[in-house]
Amino acid sequence: MSKPKATPRPRVVAQTPRRSAAAEITHLSPAEHGARGKSARAEVPRASHGAWIASADRPNPVDLLEEQSASRVPELVPIRYGRMLVSPFTFYRGGAYIMASDLAHTPTSGLTVQLCGDAHLSNFGVFASPERRMVFDINDFDETLPGPWEWDVKRLAASFEIAGRDKKFSESQRRGAVLSVVGAYREAMSGFAEMHEVEVWNSHIDVEEQLKDIEKAIGSKRSKILERDLAKARTKDSTRALQRLTHVVDGERKIISSPPSVVPVSELYSEEEAEKLTASIGRLLRQYRASLQNDRRVLVERFRPVDLGRKVVGVGSVGTRSWILVMLGRDDQDSLVLQVKQAEASVLEAFVGASPFKTHGQRVVEGQRLMQSSSDIFLGWITMTGVDGVKRDYYVRQLWDWKASADIEGMTPKGLRAYAQMCGWTLARAHARSGDRIAIAAYLGAGKAFDVAIANFSAVYADQNEADYATFKAAVGEGRLQVLTGL
């Protein structure tokens, strides 16, 4: 395997610093916020966002992927590549670092928000709120950092163009979906600009309340499939995880071995190493509980750990260390199954600056809490030293909690447009919580100039993604990258 080239550092975009609790805060009037947005529009016209031309010194996408893989579990990296190899769309899902490098060279208004950092359409979905209502929101924050709001919009919009190509939709159908997602973002931001602060904070999509509107938008046939999928999602909780992922051995719950997807810690390491890691769980749980609110800390204290295993998840995340921790409460059926997922530096860090938080686990958790309308009550973080002696950051959440993603494979053009509107509204709400929503709304304006520009960008960038995918496939064919498919 050839050695990756050094990645050039693009221009750095100023990042909004995290204020201390005692910092003085300046409050502008709505008119002053609006003037800020209009001034940004004069300096960076909305039409300027429509262009994409790769620079002569643009990094080779394979070099960037290999750079990421250097810190990952070596035997899992071929699985990541195998999942990315399926199509240009799955390649795009795993290529957040590639696009971040490209976005660093695109125009920005200078208005910053808390970014998701990987806002493609498969990183939205449904899950349970603490009140046990089914909500729709962004569900992946591994790359979250403050940065230009346009970056999330462009990554999301391009994902609809690329998914539409994967589905063999026509050019007009794909463009319709992209215009829908950007138009929904623009219109929602305009609405949020008129709202009171707490009203913005409490805004969310309650799937159960809006189910009739969603069904009307996607048609009766897809509605029945949606209702089936939502019913299935409601069964995905810790009890279901306990049944699917564990069995009883000598009176104790143990994780079922299903390599490479799920492997108990006892099979990953030597007996001595496994015992050492298992012995550290108590200390790690104390650290985790300290990151929770007090009431949730009391709840977690009622559970005891019984087994630990590694679980392969996602596409772009494959190769990072992800654990499942099985815990029991009052009896063998009272379970809490946690996912302990490694948090590395965000792919945005080289382009917007380092996180203000002490650990990347805290970075992910704080970003998620800021962007989501309702976050997992078990969301927390730890730092753990592995059996190799390397200290790594992790965030912790429930493994399953009514979680479900959209069925992109089964979507019609009409369904894709309806889904685009939900995603665009949701991203605007997430950005409105942390950014200057009035200024962003003023920058976007009431017309469709920005919508058209992003639709143009998405089509051109989808071409770039296909070229990068071809480069990736060639690297696999030449033997530079080793892949495992079907996993």
Question: Notable features of this structure?
Answer:
disordered N terminus, single chain, six-stranded antiparallel β-sheet, 20 helices, 2 domains, globular, four-stranded antiparallel β-sheet, 14 strands, 487 residues, alpha+beta, 47% helix
Detailed description of the structure:
By secondary structure, the protein is an alpha+beta fold. It has two domains: 31-234 and 409-477, no CATH class; 238-398, no CATH class. Helices cover 47% and strands 14% of the residues. It has 20 helices and 14 strands. The chain has a six-stranded antiparallel sheet with strand order 8-9-10-11-13-12. The longest helix has 29 residues, at 449-477. The radius of gyration is 22 Å and the shape is globular.
Short description:
By secondary structure, the chain is α+β, with helices and mostly antiparallel strands. Helix content is 47%, strand content 14%. The chain has two domains: 31-234 and 409-477, no CATH class; 238-398, no CATH class.
